[in-house]
Every structure is written in C-alpha cells, then in structure tokens.
Amino acid sequence: HSCDQSKSIQTGGSAAVVSSVGEGQRLLSRAKRGWVWNQMFVLEEFSGPDPILVGRLHTDLDVGNKNIKYVLAGEGAGTIFAINEMTGDIHAMKRLDREEKAEYTLTAQVINADTDEPLEPPSEFIIKVQDINDNPPQFIEGPYRASVPEMSTVGTPVTRVTATDADDPVYGNSAKLVYSILEGQPYFSIDPNSATIKIALHGMDREMREEYLVVIQAKDMGGHMGGLSGTTTVTVTLTDINDNPPKFSKSLYEFVLPEDLAIGKPGGKVKANDRDVGENAKSTYSIIEGDDRGMFEIFTDSQTQEGILRLKKPLDFETKRAYTLKVEATNARFEPSSGGPFKDTATVKIVVEDSDEPPVFSKSMYVLEVNENAPINTVIGTVTARDPDATGSLVRYFIDRHTDLERQFNINVDDGKITLAKPLDRETDMWHNITVTAAEISRAIVAIRVMDINDNAPEFATEYEAFLCENGKPGQVIQTVSAVDKDDPIQGHYFDYRLVPEMLNNPNFTIKNNQDNSISVLAKHDTFRRQKQETYLLPIIVTDNGNPPMSSTNTLTIRVCGCSKEGIVQSCNVEAYVLPIGLSMGALIAILACIILLLVIVVLFVTLRRHKNEPLIIKDDEDVRENIIRYDDEGGGEEDTEAFDIATLQNPDGINGYLPRKDIKPDLQFMPRAGQHSGPNGVDVDEFINVRLHEADNDPTAPPYDSIQIYGYEGRGSIAGSLSSLETASSDSDQNYDYLREWGPRFRRLGELYSVGESDRET
C-alpha cells in the first residue's frame, strides 16, 4: 500500500484500522473495547484484574517469517502495556483510570529476532483512555454552616453549595449534576442546577427553634437512574431580630426600706425578661408614675439587665410610710419592621420601716446668759429634744464632760434644765461652751456566753477493771479503753494514749490505737498465772488536742482469772488453787450441792420432830392463854405470826432462875440467878415483867432492835377473867363448829380441825 492509503475494517462491534506507515509496512490494530483512527487507539477505562486486548500490530514482513519480533517502547511500555513479540497483540496489564492519565504515547517496531536489528523504522501511536461514569459527586467544602435572620420571607437565599465530579465533563452526562434536599423540608428548598438553598416556610421563629440540619444530595447523569450521588450537610442557624417585648416576671414588687437608708444606696431590684438575645434583649427602666417628690431613681445593670431602684432623697417614716411606683421597661434597640418599640410595666410598692433615730434638739445651738454672782443651783436655761420615732421614747440629757472639765454646770437628766454647779467669774472666763447630749431610754438584753478554754484534762470514761484469762493468747484484746473530757473544743476531741515512760518496755502488756479516740490493751504472752501475780496495774497517760494540751495518768487494773475453754471467766481468786488438784470444778460443785442438800434434810427433820413433841392445845383448864400456831394453809382471816415461847408464863409460880433468849444465839453465857419469889397467894406479873425488861435492857447479847413479846395471861385471881378466845362459858361438847364450813375455802381447814376434835371426844 502507499503511504497515504488506509483501510478500515469493522466487524461485529469491533473496529480495525490498517494504516500504512511506510513502504512495505502495515500496522494492523484491533480493539476489543474501543476503536482506532489514524494512529490512535481509544480504550475505555477499566479496573482489571484480567488483561484486556488493546490492539494488534502487523507488518507485511510477517508472512510466515518466524525470524521477526515486535517490540514496544514509550509511556507504560512493559508495565501498563505489554506486546506479544510473535503476534504483535497489545494488552493492558493494569487498571486504566482516565482521571489519573487520559492518554499514553508509545512506539512500535519490528526487529530481527536473532540479531535485534531493526527491520522497519519505528512507528509512534497514541492510546487514549475513554471516560466512564465511575466517580460520584463530592462536596469538597462540606459540611456547611449558614445563617439567616428569623422571620425571613419565603425565597430568601440562605447559602449555595458546590459539588465536583472527577468524570469527563465533555463526554456524556457523567459530570452533569442535579441537586436535591433529602432532609430539611418543608423549611428549606434548593435550586437543582445552581444549588442555592432558600427559605421555604414563612414565620420561622428563632425563639421556637434556632438551628436546622439540612441534607443536600448531588447526583450525576443529570439525575437519571443509574447515576452516582454524594451528600453533604448544611447547618442553618436563625439569627435573632428584635421581635419580642420585655416582660416583667411579676406584676407587683414589694420592698421594705428602712428610713435611715443612705442616699444612693440600692433599695430593690426588678427584672424584665426578653426572649431575644444580645442587643435585642437589652432594656432600659424608668419610673413613670408615683414619684412626685423625686424620692427614687432606677437604672439598668449592664451585666444582669436588672432595674436597680435607689434612693435620691432621705426617707421619713413619720412623714410618709409607703410609696407606690409604676416602672416601665423598654427595649433599647428598635426595629421598625418588627412592629416596635416593645415595652412593659410593673407596680413597685415600697414600705418605709421605722428606724431608731436619735433625739433631735429644738435648736442646733443655744445661747444662755447668767450673772457672774449667781448662786449655785441657779437655773441658767433649758434645752429640749424629742424622739422623732413614732414611739416617742423619753429623752435623757447629759453634759459632755470633755467640754466642761471644771464641772461648773449641771443638767437635769429628765427635763434638760442647766444649773450652776460652781461660782462664775466673768473676768476669768467670759464664755463657756459646753456640749449637751440627748439619749433615748432603751433597754436591751445582753447574753454573755462563757467561751471554753482547755482547762480540763481527759480521763477514763469509767473506772475500768479488766480480766485476763490464764489461757489467753498473745495479742488478745484484754480491754477497750476510751476517755472523756469536760471541755468542748470547736474542732472536737482527739485523745492521744501512751504508757508511762517506765512501762514502755514492760513484758506483759501493750496498747493499740483504734483511731476512734479509744485504745485496746493487748497481752504480750500467755504465761500469766494467779499464783505468780493476781493483779497488774497499768498506768496510761491520756492527752487531749487543746492549746495548751492537758493530760492525766489513769491506772487500769488487770486481774488474772481462770477461764473455761470458751474464754468465760469462772474464778479470779487465788484461794481456788488450795483445793485438791485431782478434782475438776464440776466435781467440786456437785460435792458442795450434795452437802447442802444433806444439811437441809437434817434441819427439816429436826424441825418436824420438835413440832411433833409440842402439844397444840393446853389441857390445864386453869392455865388458859393465847397460843398462836402457824399453819401452811391460810386461815380464816387471821394473819400468820411467828410463834413465840410462852413457857415463861405457863407456870409463873415455879419460875426460878434465868431463861435464855431465843431470838438470838448469845456469844456469852451468864449464870442464872435466883428469881423473885411470889407471895403465897400467886404471882406478881407486873413485877415479873419489870424484872425481865431490866434484864433485856442490860443484856449485851441482845440485838440492837426492840423485841416485842405479847402475853395474854391476866394473872391468877383477876376479876376480869380470861380473854382467851379458846375458853368460853360453855363446854367443848356444847360448841357446834359446823358453821365454819359455810364461811368459804379460807375457813375449811379450821372447820376440819374442830370437827375432828368433837369426834375424838365422842369416842
């Protein structure tokens, strides 16, 4: 073929171009996914991984000649592009991305396979990468923030966003973008082409909602199906405008001001709240009614936006006790478009509180005259003062003696009359300037509290007596000790415990601080024995944390005791060790119990034997007297008493000598002495009782208490006769005691006794 001839072959969707590049040379190119014109291969970008055929080189010399080979040089030769040396096929070996490199320039040549000598001149050609839609739109500057005034009209622009697409904007629609809103409706809208965001809803109020989040989407391929998309966010903030009036939190404010409040001092605060922010929320305050005298003024605190009410003129409780003001709050910034100016009013009621004011003199200066020869106690003049308070307290007057050092004048404390105290001499002093003070009569209760100082030393909370078991273990807590202090420091008590210096290294005991103002006393060993030492004295020094610190030495008594295996104290006396070693404590207790039981049985036996031998009823008709017997059963109303021995009076005629007392056991025994013999006609009971009384008073063995003995014997030959209830005018056989059974359970036993007596007599 000639150099200017070219032949194009296209079959089955593939294009082939044969271009003559020199005489006797021919380039054949076939593209599986592209086409070739002139000396250019066009290939769509691909991502691999399999190699793809770009085209084929062919020369007229390749007519079965096996001695030729194709070589490739240029951009990407050997790395991105490879050529089959035998067939001339060119393949793309790696991923081709138009966004990285759009075209490659290469050189092809045919050489001798044996000598590598060129058989044809090199031919240059271009491989162009054709774009496909493989890149989504991106918002490089996102996310976005924008602001717009609240209450803006519909269509007001907010901001504009921009997305970019890396695909070829010239070829196809791969880079043609369309914008839309995914989130943020119905508040905002966006132009699909210009990407301008606008207000879509009327009346957007910042006080209701201040911030909005809008999601914007950009889609390529003109927004058609199959296009790629990217999103971004736009945070839209509504800025404030002055569209809200100030509003007082209360419609009525009440303040109580003392009448002695200084001028310029604040007397109260009011506040009007504004839902706007910044400059739009600032308000100014003014008094529009109720202050005809100009007593008050109000100004705005720039930090808190409060209205501070303060005094311009002094208050007087006696003149006017209350004021009612109307205060107005107005926005400092005014926007005609918002319908302002905005304002609000509130009522302020001020109550004047009476203060204790000093007395006021009728004049600030008094000029009085007196003759120099005036006698003492002459009234020179009178000063008057009154209490301006509503209470009208009495006023007392005094002369300031610093202005009357010579005490030439006196003043009546009640009425203010100034009198002469010493004679005056005009030639010595022509003028005397004195100061008079007026004071109210008032009283106050003054409570004087005596403050505590650290003047008491701490001491043990109680008199401790500790018990230590002989079988105790080393380190065992013997006693927990705490202290008390009569002082009451503000910071509270803290006690420090320590042993006296001479006991620091003692081998028996130590102390441990419990960190709660108490200590534990511990044993150092387990070899304590009562035979060796029964009692230990442990002196402990307790110091408080006062200024200066006070301390005292307290002694803890520790007794060594015998304990059970469980540690229960059983005996602390050393005499316990005198007992036989072979007997246990339980055996000793059992033996003692048996001995006590035997003694009780013996005593009961003797007592019963003695009562059995004594007759219950006296058979001698002439010797009838009271005999009180105690029964275990409750009798018919009588109270049980201790039986007493009446043997002394049973036979007064035969009594001789001394009868020992039975209420005590005497330590000393006295020899009986001859008794007083009665006359031939009987016993002188009165003399007998006096003798016995004298013996009882002089008896050293008598107890230190009175012993009362009652005798029912009236004496032989008494006219009154016997007072015994056991002897009556009738005989025993005439008495019927059946009525005792009818008296109830209390007299049942007595009735049985008398019934038995009757049956015995019958038999």
TrEMBL record:
Tell me what topology the record assigns in the membrane.
Answer: Single-pass type I membrane protein
Q: Where is the signal peptide?
A: none
Any Gene Ontology CC annotation: synaptic cleft
Cross-referenced PROSITE patterns? CADHERIN_1 (PS00232), CADHERIN_2 (PS50268)
Its Gene Ontology biological processes? adherens junction organization; calcium-dependent cell-cell adhesion via plasma membrane cell adhesion molecules; cell migration; cell morphogenesis; cell-cell adhesion mediated by cadherin; cell-cell junction assembly; homophilic cell adhesion via plasma membrane adhesion molecules; morphogenesis of an epithelium
User: Transmembrane stretches, by residue range?
Assistant: 577-606
Principal location: other
Task: Write the record's keywords in alphabetical order, separated by commas.
Answer: Calcium, Cell adhesion, Cell junction, Cell membrane, Glycoprotein, Membrane, Metal-binding, Repeat, Signal, Transmembrane, Transmembrane helix
Q: Keyword tRNA processing on this protein?
A: no
In its keyword annotation, does this UniProt entry include Aminoacyl-tRNA synthetase?
Answer: no
Localization, UniProt: Cell junction, Adherens junction; Cell membrane
Q: Which GO terms describe its molecular function?
A: beta-catenin binding; cadherin binding; calcium ion binding
Q: What is the documented function of this protein?
A: Cadherins are calcium-dependent cell adhesion proteins.
| This protein's name | Cadherin 8
The taxonomic lineage of its organism, from the top, reads: Eukaryota, Metazoa, Chordata, Craniata, Vertebrata
The protein's gene is named: CDH8
